[in-house]
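Bench log. Compound arrived from synthesis this morning; before running ITC I wanted a structural hypothesis for how zinc ion sits in the protein. Inputs:
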Amino acid sequence: MRWIFSLFFFFSFHTAFCVTPSQSLKQLIEGNWRYTHNKSSHADHSSVRRKTLLKKQEPFAVILGCSDSRVAPEIIFDQGLGDLFIVRVAGNVDGATELDSIEYAVKYLGSPLVLVLGHEGCGAVNAVMEGNTADIEDVAELIRPAIHGAKTLEEAVKENVRWTVESLKKTPILKKLIREKKISCLGAYYHLDTGKVELLDKKKDLDFSRSH
Ligand SMILES: [Zn+2]
């Protein structure tokens, strides 16, 4: 079975990187600004756009976000079909299947930015803080070491995001692409009330000089 996937990856292989990590981040920030200012453009969901995506997709960012229904990436970043490659799981953790998905996007679809997105009032992180994890033990196992010592839920969510970012950066495929300045991996926190996405590591490894 594995060879079929290898073949698929081979024929779909391209690392286009049509936009830089900083251009990708700018698009997300601008989209979130439109969303928070009630100026959402209802980004392209048209049949024309659908048809242009029949042959290939080139999402300009990967979002590793929580499954929480209030944190839908296409909406909060005001993006359309084919724009974002989204991996959603309770507590935005990077288990083995999430990592496979992220690696696929950066390696084969040329997505230049991986954004780990935690959020205010995260039930999964809260459950771990309260030791109430019987129903989410697989997710809890990944969150628990990240939030050790955090005193508030907000602090714990942010620590979980930072932990996940650092863990992703150490994986071979992402590490190589970051070293080559083809991608960036950043963390962010979504405020349920204002809708604003706050970047957690503004000063880190964005390459603003690279352009096409
Ligand atoms: Zn959550």
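What the model suggests: The chain has one domain: 16-199. The beta strands are 61-65, 84-88, 113-119, 184-190, 197-199.
ITC booked for Thursday regardless.
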